[in-house]
Specification:
This protein is an alpha/beta fold. Helix content is 31%, strand content 20%. The chain is built from 10 helices and 17 strands. The longest helix has 17 residues. The structure holds adenosine monophosphate and magnesium ion. The site of magnesium ion has 3 residues, from loops.
Length: 339
């Protein structure tokens, strides 16, 4: 299949929108990561997303909208707290889970009777959804298991030949996926930490629980509430270990680990002024917000540089920290050293 490269001109966005409307697949930028879209009203189109990504069929897709009015078209039982989130944080990097209406085929929700809904703030994403004229089902535009794409180049590497087109809209700002909050139970539950933090929700008057699985992987027979929790995720080819604790202690521990691994090509994802001398050092940024933005592209970069063993510093447990830590732990297959 030929994969067409689109710019963000209105002509290109309209052409890409037509492809979506006709059942094709288009990758597009959002403020979080690049998404791989298909019409959310077209079961066959949604099915193609799973094939293109190599995604397990029990991992549901998020439905993207470009106007709040579309929520009532696809979901019901919108709770007061869900309404508060819609009013306060949409458009933005948050996804809400509600009871679905029949218009959304079960292929999109992987058989669930709930639907995940997101209203992105990115102008190109919104223009594309508008041009398509239907809500767009879209997971991240990476091959299943790989780090989510935050640059067009990442999508081109993973998806060329597998989808109809890619819109190059530059780098994604947030860098980690949206926060997912489930409103179908007694109390709102954060299933995935992301661009909107627990504290942001709290400040807006939403008292959410944090799902206990956010920092661990599920055992094979556990039923995932957020199916993404079950699978190997964000994993580069390199073997990743997270080293977590106070800055100087983390640094000393990593120096020790580098020494032990001196026969391998090593890399460090560092938040500090790094002075490791035997490793490829990538700068994660000065705080967790920057870490979130740099994380996935750094993981891909280590692979491009042929790095075999990566040590990732994690030093600060603030607002964005939970989102970073969740992705890091998964990238590391839960290999974490607390120092
Ligand atoms: P991604 O592939 O990174 O876009 O991830 C989409 C995430 O949204 C997956 O991890 C899903 O588990 C989650 N998700 C989508 N729909 C639902 C739903 N109805 N209930 C729970 N989680 C959902
Ligand atoms: Mg994904």
């Amino acid at each position: 299949m030929e994969t067409k490269l689109f710019s963000t001109s209105s002509e290109d966005i309209n052409n890409a929108g037509k492809i979506l409307k006709n059942g094709g697949l288009i990758a597009f930028p959002t403020e979080t990561v690049y998404g791989l879209g298909a019409s959310a009203y077209d079961a066959d189109a949604a099915e193609k997303i799973y094939t293109a990504k190599g995604r397990p069929s029990d991992n549901p897709l998020i439905v993207h909208i470009c106007e709040k009015e579309q929520i009532d078209e696809i979901a019901e039982d919108v709770t007061e707290e869900a309404k508060m989130v819609i009013d306060t944080f949409m458009p933005g990097p948050i996804t809400i889970i509600l009871k679905k209406k029949n218009i959304i085929p079960k292929t999109v929700t992987a058989g669930l009777d709930t639907v995940a809904i997101r209203f992105p703030s990115h102008n190109v994403a919104r223009a594309l959804i508008k041009a398509a004229g239907v809500p767009i089902a879209a997971p991240s535009a990476n091959l299943s298991g790989k780090p989510s794409p935050t640059k067009a180049r990442h999508v081109i590497n993973d998806m060329t030949g597998r989808i109809d087109g890619i819109i190059d809209g530059g780098d994604c700002n947030v860098g980690v996926e949206s926060t997912i909050v489930d409103f179908t139970g007694n109390k709102p539950v954060i299933l995935r930490p992301g661009g909107i933090t627990y504290e942001d929700l709290k400040n807006a008057g939403i008292d959410a629980e944090i799902d206990k699985n956010i920092l661990k992987s599920l055992s094979a027979n556990e039923v995932p509430k957020c199916p993404g929790m079950k699978y190997k995720h964000y994993a580069p080819n390199a073997d990743v270990t997270v080293v977590e604790g106070e800055k100087t202690v983390v640094k000393n521990k990593i120096k020790e680990l580098l020494e032990e691994n001196r026969n391998k090509i090593t890399g460090v994802l560092s938040m500090n002024d790094a002075d490791y001398d035997t490793a490829v050092i990538l700068n994660a940024g000065k705080d967790n917000k920057e870490y979130a933005k740099n994380l996935f592209s750094s993981l891909r970069e280590f692979d491009e540089l042929g790095v075999e063993v990566v040590f990732a510093e994690f030093c600060e447990d603030d607002g964005y920290g939970l989102a970073v830590k969740n992705r890091l732990y998964k990238a590391a297959g839960q290999k974490v050293i607390h120092v």
